[in-house]
Amino acid sequence: MALKVGIVGLPNVGKSTLFNAVNQQAQAQASNYRFCTIDPNVGQVDVPDARIDKLAELVSPERVMPTSIEFVDIAGLVKGASKGEGLGNKFLANIREVDAITHVIRCFEDENILREEGEINPVGDMEIIDTELQLKDLESVDKQLERNNKIAKNGDAKAKETVAILEKCKAHLIEGNSIRTMDLVDEEWAMVNELFLLTSKPVLYVANVDEASMLTGNKYSEALIAAVAAEGNEVIVMNNNIEAEISVMEDADDRAMFLEEYKLEEPGLSRLIRSAYTLLNLITYFTAGVQEVRAWTVLKGWKAPKAAGVIHTDFEKGFIKAEVIGYNDYVSLGSEAAAKEAGKLRIEGKEYVVCDGDVMHFRFNV
Known about the structure:
By secondary structure, the protein is of the alpha/beta class. It has helices at residues 15-27, 50-59, 88-96, 122-152, 157-174, 186-193, 219-228, 240-247, 252-261, 268-279, 304-308, 313-317, 327-333, 336-341; strands at residues 4-8, 36-39, 42-46, 63-65, 68-73, 100-107, 203-209, 235-238, 282-288, 292-299, 319-325, 346-348, 359-364.
């Protein structure tokens, strides 16, 4: 599943530093982990997951293939982007193509780094981008309303339903709210998703703090956390420059010493990547054999045949059954054979909903 997370932010907030650090971290991973730069501002990065390392330790496969997501470094935004100011049109077009947003916000003082927006104000910075996206969505909703109203007048039932949901969206946007905060039932959300609105995308915030505050946060990051609490959004506090330094260290011992020096249990980037993965409502299942131990990405709630389809479409078309071992059972017993002997290998059918961490083997016939 080629899912993308866009990194956005105002100019000079540490956005590109973060993107470069994410990519460098991927390059610094073990040789059997892959990294690919798709173009100058898109990078595919592995999702840190200790479970795949443990499975590889038990199975000793020829290769290990972790799951991954794409990060996109999106052009910086300025106030007025919704009207084409700066690189506004490019910025908004790029956001439309991603599945989720990582919003980098400046939470540090440094008189040497230009800031056109005045005093440090993380909540105000967040609102600038939110407002620009809301204004663009309002423009899009108005256009879609005009088109669907004409169709609805001819008695088209689908158009009438679309008009009703568009009116709800418009009222919400006019009040200065993002679409993702609407209180809708599942059927309404399905309709909203078809509108491709910018503010419907889930958001994760990165509070880029000074070095002294990267463990504790500061008044700026605390203000940001309080501001987004009502939405339930996560804020990851980190120092992007320190993360960039960690990411270029190829020697594992050097990285460990550096982390210990700064009293970090793991790089903040690892937390960010995992949180972005979760933000997209993704889970991981594994296949484990002597040729390959591999992590596969599926959406939470997918049933076994659809999950099998991410390996190959034939697996879904000809699905017969799935052999499933829970991750904890696999690890505690030490192998597939031991799990089977202990009665921990289950046979599941087409209605089985895949769980995060399942170790699976599919039977199919085409």
